[in-house]
Specification:
It is built from six helices and 14 strands. It has helices spanning about 65-70, 100-105, 175-185, 195-200, 215-225, 240-255; strands at about 5, 25-30, 35-40, 55-60, 85-90, 120-125, 130-135, 140-145, 150-155, 160-165, 190, 230-235, 260, 265. By secondary structure, the protein is of the alpha/beta class. About 45% of the residues are buried. The mean pLDDT is about 95. The chain starts with a strand and ends with a strand. The strands form two sheets. It has a seven-stranded mixed beta sheet, with no helix packed on it. The longest helix has 14 residues, at about 240-255. Bound molecules: zinc ion (ZN) (2 copies). One zinc ion binds next to loops. One zinc ion binds near residues 10 and 69.
């Protein structure tokens, strides 16, 4: 089971217009067993895990380090508990200010608790495209996507289904060919549909080409070419309210029936 705890992109949002799909930024979680779990990204969606104290060991795979994907990390309570083990995985890049990203995230004055005050047993794991990881009942394959400053996509393989989570991704480069190959035959593609195709193309203002995100139209092209059974639209634009996302879902399903608009709390 894969829990989508945060499905908003760029910025968290709240209010009456965002009740149906939710406003937390990217975070996914899949349990390995009752004591350990795998988390993808640390957006504000990670907060909902603070109320579950049963897990003792966490594997946190970060897709990239843009704020919306890490802003929840400092308020993740497991970091302050000496009984917890936390393994962090992130892409090995020359632009990293430190190989221990927590030294940056918890560095005053950005956050009042410094890295050396964290109580959990923490390991940092720098990973490269092509790396594979094996947990009981879950395999993870990592591969580079297309996004400013880079992004790691994760294919999550269960005995009964496979899910490709692209996180933030912009189409239109040769990486698209690789994505089709990487996604081929998956049951689910969780894809960055930040922009309505008209907004992406700049029909009502500035073009969003080159901003690092994509559209449901492109997601549909990918699932068709890669023979993926289901498309999950995510990384919702903070400007798009429930009605807008409802409409986008309806338009997408006209072209690909097995399209789902992700919401905070969705389970795959
Ligand atoms: Zn993002
Ligand atoms: Zn990003």
């Amino acid at each position: 089971m894969l829990y989508l705890l945060g499905t908003r992109g760029t910025l968290p949002v709240s209010g009456q217009r965002f009740v149906k799909y939710g406003g937390n930024t990217t975070c996914l979680m899949t349990p390995i067993d009752e004591k350990s779990c795998i988390i993808f990204d640390g957006g504000t969606g990670i907060m909902s895990l603070n109320k579950y104290n049963n897990f003792e060991e966490y594997h946190i795979f970060l897709t990239h380090l843009h704020w919306d994907h890490i802003v929840g990390v400092p308020i993740f309570q497991a970091f302050y508990n000496h009984k917890k083990k936390i393994h962090i995985y992130l892409e090995n890049k020359p632009t990293l200010q430190s190989t221990d990203i927590l030294e940056v995230l918890f560095n005053p004055p950005f956050f009042p608790v410094p890295r050396n005050k964290l109580r959990a047993e923490i390991t940092m794991n720098l990973i490269d495209t092509g790396d594979q990881f094996s947990f009981p009942g879950i395999d993870i394959h990592a591969a580079e996507g297309n996004h400013p400053d880079g992004v790691m996509m994760y294919k999550i393989i269960y005995p009964d289904k496979s899910v490709l989570f692209t996180s933030d991704y912009e189409h239109g480069t040769p990486v698209d060919d690789f994505l089709i190959e990487f996604a081929y035959g998956c049951d689910y593609l969780i894809y960055d549909t930040t922009y309505h195709p008209d907004e992406y193309a700049g029909k009502s203002g500035m073009s969003r080409v080159g901003w690092g995100h994509s559209t449901y139209q492109q997601g549909i092209e990918f699932v068709k070419k890669a023979n993926v059974k289901n498309l999950v639209m995510t990384h919702h634009n903070p400007d798009y309210d429930d009605i807008t996302l409802d409409e986008m879902g309806i338009m997408a399903r006209r072209q690909f029936a097995n399209t789902f608009v992700a919401y905070d709390g969705m389970v795959i």
